[in-house]
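ok so heres the complex, two chains, lmk if somethin looks off
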Amino acid sequence: MTKVKVDPEKCQGHARCAALAPELFVLDELGNAREAGDGTVPEALIEKAYLAKANCPELAIDVIEEKA
Amino acid sequence: MSTRPPVDDWATDFDHLDPRWIENPYPIWEELREKCPVAHTERFRGVYFPSRYEDVRAVAYDTENFSSRRIIVRETPPPRIPAPPITSDPPEHRPAKNLLLPAFTPDAIKRYEQHTREICGKLVAGFADKSGCDAAVDYAQEIPVRVIAVMLGLPEEEGDRFRTWIHDILELGITRPDVLMKAIGETTKYFQAEIEKRRSAPRDDLISRLMEAKIDGAPITEDHLLGAMRLILIAGIDTTWSAIGSCFWHLAQHPQDRQRLVADPALIPTAVEEFLRAYAPVTMAREVIKDTTIGGCPMKPGQMVLLSFPAANRDPAVFKDADHVMIDRKENRHAAFGLGIHRCIGSNLARMEITVALQEWLKRIPEFHLDPAAKVTWSEGTVRGPRKLPVLFN
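and the predicted structre for the whole thing:
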């Protein structure tokens, strides 16, 4: 199973993740990001998860591949 | 432009007001990155210039050794001019920034998208039937000033006044403290009058909301309020206008990119990120407050550091083919809006404005090129963008 995780200490609200993968990330009232739900990435969205990670200027996003 | 002693060696005597730097800084930065990644100059009472991404990032993240109390390199340091949160350090920075952030989230910015589209549409309609226009003067510079005016609750027709202040504060004010202080005084008076108007009759605008804002239960001081308003006005206008101008400067010279965006408007947001990377308009500065070392270069307290996000964005160690503009670049971790706690509050607003400005123009004017008989001119100092950009429609 694949999960995304936003490090809230690193996130500065660039909002690139929410623009590129709105299914996987949500923004709070200040515009800072967190993973949607528990961060689980459906198979079809794995590429988007990595795209979000690759576009985060603060290196705040992790994509974690967990063994089932 | 002032007459300045010519630069012989960029590594030890750079001058960011040198005409060559203003015209085309990228080859200078490339040379520095290879020969002397942290340059220094005795000009402006001592300034360092890191040109590599990792060094720019290190300074941006280091609020222990670098202060934001001065964020513009000037010939003569003026008295402190606070504009929180951009001039704030921790711990004051966070609460000052949190006051403003809710007004600038992507959702909050959507409120202004339709209005921005109308502004752009009207401007384009004003020149689309002519043989050409000045894409900087007639278009780019007219967009952000109006959107910011609407957000703050100020008359949209005040554009000339706002742009004069910005020119005085950010450009002329670098070498002329009298011009700087006069403009600061005028903005203070202007905003005090706007605050006064809202005391008895609050409006649905950002100024009224900031007047009611509290930090730790206490209303913010008038100085804080005036500083924040000045920041929003200054930071929200010529930055985005410069970014928009640079997009058109590029597209006027790259017909394949232009035709591709006309044929596939869905690519515009991706292209906007690439234009932001390659032509990032904003260079901030920090004051060194403790002895430290960046990229192997010792730095002395009291000196300044030019924090060149534009140079970081051209670093080939981080961006493949960094000097090549690829409008479909997928991995683009650019730093156009800064890195760390001072990430530009207006980034979502800027992205919306640039995107809409491109969409509305390209719909009506798909073909254009630089006017070969005219000259493109660039701003100098903190914000880089075309100030004259004559184009012909074909």
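quick notes: The mean pLDDT of chain B is 96. thats all i got rn
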